[in-house]
Amino acid sequence: MTIELDSRDRAILRILQADGRITNSDLAEKVHLSPSACLRRVRQLEESGLIRGYAMILDDKIAGFPGTAFVFVTLDQQGRASLEGFEQAVRNLPEILECHLLAGAHDYLMRVIYRDSADFERIHTDIITQLPGVTRVQSTLTLRSIKKSSALPV
Questions:
Q1: Is-above-0.85 flag for pTM?
Q2: How many CB atoms lie within 10 A of CB 13?
Q3: Contacts by 7-15 with C-beta closer than 8 Å and gap 24+?
Q4: What does residue 75 show for φ and ψ, rounded to 5 degrees?
Q5: Looking at residues 21-25, what average pLDDT do you find?
Q6: What are phi and psi of 131, to 5 degrees?
């Protein structure tokens, strides 16, 4: 489902993605609306589900997680029960920031953060390889991030 957005809605979304803490009055001024009209639009965007929430973005390194790995996982079976069991287990693991079901040679791609090589070994050995149905794990460690964004090009 897509939502019809006009130029003001798009402007509101761009500004909120850049600064989710902006006051409604400052947002209204930037998009040339009255504060009440601006708030009404923001609430409509929230109620539609397009705006799912507001979050604080922490710096991985400063928070003590300088390492990022992308981990490909292959399961022994691709039946619904196997996929659901794996996915449910992944949801409860804070070290796994993202997990995507794939079409192709691997079943899942995960983005994992870690403190150091010993921490990554722990995550790999004690967590990822122990997830339900896992038969193969292939990890790629990043050297540095060039671009990292959560903003959509609206």
A1: yes
A2: 19
A3: 8/32, 8/33, 8/41, 9/41, 9/45, 10/154, 12/38, 12/41, 12/42, 12/45, 13/45, 13/50, 13/51, 13/152, 13/154, 14/151, 14/154
A4: -100, 160
A5: 98
A6: -65, 150
